[in-house]
Amino acid sequence: MLLDGAGKPISDRERIPTPAVPTARAVLKGLQKLRDALPKFDRVSVGFPGVVKRGITWSAFNLHPSWGGFPLQHELEKMWRKPVRVANDAAIQGYGAIKGQGIEMILTLGTGMGNAIYTSGRLVAMELGHHPWKKHTYEDYIGRRGLDRYGKKRWNKYLLEAIEQTRNTFNWDHLYLGGGNTKKIEFKLPEHVTIVSNETGLLGGVALWRDDTLSGHK
């Protein structure tokens, strides 16, 4: 989607299916199709479902092993001859939600469980979804696998427990919950916990350019 400087959409949202075998090169071809459908642009913000450091993707558990160590930011800059910034997709949604005050955290509830944490508005790269928790991982309990396996009632119970666990671990001042499965939350949200819409990811794509640590260049 093409946005103006304030994050307001000025084009339709373009979508295509994820390739059946989502290798890095296959996804790049799909991104080129999306780019061809858009008007001219000045720069690009990319949200990626995995660990990203300095524009390089290091893991993508729900995609393909070829993403390990892939220079996505560099490849897109080379393809499109425009400045590009790549960050974890949950991190970008968080950028659109945070106030830049104290320790803020976001958990996104979808196919997996995304997350990001910020200190005074600065992103701290992390991947909590696959961190051990209980007998498995956070994602096994509050990602879609957990919802399908345990049902909505127990999923809500585990999510509430995870909220308290992250509060005790990270001492966050505010927690944001995003992703499509927030619609399945049935409990009263604890203090300093807020649900944010997926639209915050659009604003986050603009805010991404305010953090110079994400340039990807040494």
Overview of this protein structure:
There is one protein chain. With 218 residues, this protein is α/β, with parallel strands linked by helices. Helix content is 33%, strand content 21%. The mean pLDDT is 90. It has a domain of 110 residues: ATPase, nucleotide binding domain (Nucleotidyltransferase, domain 5, 2-Layer Sandwich). The two termini are 29 Å apart. β8 and β9 form a beta hairpin.
Write the layout of secondary structure elements.
Elements: H1 24-36, E1 44-48, E2 51-53, E3 56-59, H2 72-80, E4 84-88, H3 89-97, E5 103-109, E6 113-119, E7 122-124, E8 132-133, E9 136-137, H4 138-142, H5 144-170, E10 174-178, E11 193-195, H6 200-207
Parallel strand pairs: 1-4, 5-10, 10-11
Antiparallel strand pairs: 2-3, 5-6, 6-7, 8-9
